[in-house]
Amino acid sequence: MVRTVKGEGTPPRSSWPAAGILRLFLGLLLAGLPVICRAGESAAADISRDPSDLPGPLPRRGPKLLRIDLLALETEGRLTDGSTFRYWTFGGKVPGPFLRVRVGDTLEVHLRNDPGCRMVHSIDLHAAWGDSGGAMLSQTLPGGEKTFTFRALNPGLYLYHCGTPVVAQHIANGMYGLILVEPPGGLPKVDREFYIMEGEIYTSGGFGASGFQEPDFRKILEARPDYFVFNGSVGALVRHPLRAKVGRRIRIFFGNAGPSTSANLHALGAIFEKVYEDGSLASPPMENSCSIFAPSGGAGFVEFVPKVPGSYPLVDHFFFKQEKGLGGSLVVEGPADPSIIHEGAVR
Predict the structure, then answer these.
(1) What is the pLDDT of residue 32?
(2) Which of 34, 53, 118, 158 is deepest in the core (most CB within 10 A)?
């Protein structure tokens, strides 16, 4: 959650040389231990964030002091129709909340680690300069809270993730999201915006196994994912499809959490008319591409106007990932236009 706060924030001094190293050591020590779900939580909770769940464009304004509140939460959630998984999350959803700020804003970040967690957690924001993007300042024990402050100096779309070793494990288990640092004038107007992230999941039982699944630490180290997912679980963007209308411009923010493979988002039957590669706002967008590439830890966004109605499958053009759970749908409503496409011979 992002809130405007009054007054001036002062960045705390880093205690990294002593306490920070100790906390990272504790993270490593606990990495192989099972994580206990808090009592009363549903074993089949839908942890997948709806792709339409993101804040809208910011109004024209000068720099502000903003407070960002994040909660590290370990919970059991739905992975497939027949299995659940032990997720580590920011706020109980995957991906974490979409953070939207303006270049020049000062961000006071408050990270709480739920008392029911077993792991040390933190946050590394790729939009922040110094102290490992905040990871050195935010190593937080269960039940604790850490605060740090930074100024957003560079516009763009950036990943954030837990920065506690073993970092790949925290990312693979669901601790990632995107932060958009808008330029002074904001982004061009569109009719709808969406938020998608691709991730990898490594399970104790392997692909297709039923029942409760623990994370498999060895597979993470060997980069052998069992599942590839959009927004945290198999079928998330089928249960929560993107919905748009013919003739209305849409924008899709896309990030690849990895931690081990690159991604190449493609919507079958659509052309991305503007592509902002690597989340960069410093140069004009590329035009008219079928996909957007994002390395592990990378992000970008696309804009286009759907020309015909129908269901547009969302895939990764590394097609083997569809055989391991990846897939989604963009559903477009509106009048058909046979002059663009139709079945049969020329009319």
Answers:
(1) 42
(2) 158
